[in-house]
Specification:
Elements: H1 5-21, H2 30-56, H3 62-70, H4 72-81, H5 86-115, H6 128-147, H7 150-154
């Protein structure tokens, strides 16, 4: 569980940061644009890190990941200051901080095993059930949070049941 969930949580944070940053197209001042562009960069970096970590079967660059996760509340505060969805930012910050904490915990455990002479090597691919459970947790939190962003509010929600009598 500890080996894949940080990456899954980083995926959730990345998607939410990208969605929050997408509001840059809806106007605002230069400071707003700077914060929202930074959110897009942070979101893309989280998605790249998550993909690399899932591919490796363990969190990559743990020191960098823990440091970036520690900055999540700062990004969250800046995003709230420019009017981003509080629900989306809270979920993204929660995902990022949790991913960082889980990465730090796993990093510490590997270091303790190595210092005690234990094998640091483990199975490269975790149990599929744990990965699915983590993905369900991320989906359950991220989906409603995404719906509160500008991107989510602008999404087309027609599922084929149009009531328009003219067929538009």
């Amino acid at each position: 569980m500890l080996r894949t969930w940080p990456a899954l949580f980083a995926f959730g944070a990345g998607l939410l940061h990208l969605a929050a940053g997408a509001a840059v197209v809806h106007g605002g001042g230069a400071s707003t644009a700077a914060v929202l562009c930074a959110l897009i960069v942070v979101g893309a970096a989280e998605l790249i890190w998550a993909g690399a970590s899932l591919h490796a079967g363990r969190p990559r660059r743990p020191r960098l990941a823990v440091g970036a996760a520690a900055a999540a509340p700062v990004w969250g505060a800046a995003a709230l200051a420019v009017g981003c969805s509080p629900i989306a930012i809270a979920a993204a910050s929660g995902f990022a901080v949790t991913a960082g904490a889980m990465t730090a915990r796993g990093w510490g455990e590997r270091a303790r095993r190595a210092a005690s002479g234990g094998s640091a090597a483990r199975r490269a691919h975790p149990a599929v059930a744990w990965t699915i459970a983590g993905a369900l947790v991320v989906a359950a939190v991220a989906t409603p949070a995404l719906a509160t962003t500008t991107a989510g509010l602008s999404a087309v929600h027609d599922h084929g049941g149009s009531t328009d009598p003219h067929g538009h």
